[in-house]
Amino acid sequence: MMIPKISGLELKKGAGVYAEFKKNAKVYAAVLFFALALLLFLSVLRNSLFGDIDEEKKIWFELSFLLLAAIMAEMLVNYLKQPVVMVLLIVGVVISPSASGIIYGIVAGVLDFLLAAAGIVFFMPADAPHLVQSGGLIEIFAKLGAILLLFKIGLHCETKKIFNVKNLVIALLGVVVPFAGGYYFAVAGGHSFYYALFLGAALTATSVGVTVAVLEELKLLQTQMAQALLGAAVIDDILALLVLSFVQNIPAGGIGEGVFLQIGSLVATTLIFVVGGILLGRFVVTVYFDPIVGTEKMPKRGFLAMLMYLLFYAYVAEFIGLSAIVGAFIAGITMNYSHKTERLLDMFYPLEALFTPVFFISLGLLVDVNALVENIVPIFIVTLLAIATKIVGCGVGAVLSGSNVKEGIAIGAGMVPRGEIALIIGLYGLTALTPEGVPVLGPSEYAVIASMAFITTIIAPPLIQMTAGKNAAAVQ
Fold first, then answer.
1. Domains of the chain with bracketed CATH
2. pLDDT band at 475 (very low <50, low <70, confident <90, very high)
3. Helices 224-253 and 419-431, interaxial angle, to 10°?
4. What is the pTM assigned to this prediction?
């Protein structure tokens, strides 16, 4: 058998083909792995959206999705020219379980129709995608966002500008007028005595986190109006939580001496925490933290110590019956005694950028769009009542304390958002029982309070922008 001879030209040509293949082998391998990775990621994404994933695993997807939503919100801010807070709240509503289910049903129906018309046999999954569920680790991240935001705001504030007679008058009327309005409205509507108490308590709250975020974005945080608004909002939150403590103990045993003793004890404890906490914190900051911050590079132990200090103040506030955000604000005020506040703000910025958007988006996640539609009339009325009572109560308090009418309206508008504290009051009402063993709030009644809390929160940014922005020059 004759073995064919291979010419030099053929050898050279074969070697060239091999060299070309070897040269492109990395490219082929990269394209292959890119395609496989794309399929893998799409498969994981599909299962995460439509599958039943263990909660411990799903949390990382939810956090990634929340941060993606925050990035999209930042992009929308530039396009819509609206405050970041309002856009984050709207994004939260859109990705909430109730809203996303409605949106998916419409989109899936349209796609199925178009694909069928094109002769393509493909159907979208019947169940809506599971984007983000409120609660669990998401709730903890949201709380951390609120705590860090209030700590940062506290760093901008001086004690004498927050806790003074003017702010106390504004806060008192900002609690009394909404509580009376909510109580008498519920009684006039034929609701129970206990529901009237909880509705009145829900109307007293103010979501100070939303207000200060908008004021900061509008660069009004250092104005006299903003300082009065911020101080009144913090005092308002303290008073609202005292009202909650009073209300949540009534269904168990009615109004009696024990309730007033408990409230008196909480008031005394709160006074000790606020006044004593500021004095003690001032000592700790000037003696311990200032020498550390004064070094050229912040040591790790200094950063960890300040984070521990902040969280401990938040914990003590929660422990004695207040909100963690009040404790964070007090911690921030004490840090204001440091001579290096700018360095502290720079140091906490990465934490704020991570956790604060989650806080605002999580408020939108709590909205039940279906309940909002079903109870649209009472929600509309209660929301109008919530807006009017805050503007009137706080506005009158501001005018009586020396502000002009326009500034009083701006302060009242800034106190409108109810946010997370009203939701907390509503949740207490769901679990509280009357002496007859009946839940204080039913699902529809809770939906009214929860929807009011959200609507007042989402309407607050443009309301503050409209009233406070016009008065900025007059109150510098």
1. 136-475 (1.20.1530.20)
2. very low
3. 0
4. 0.71
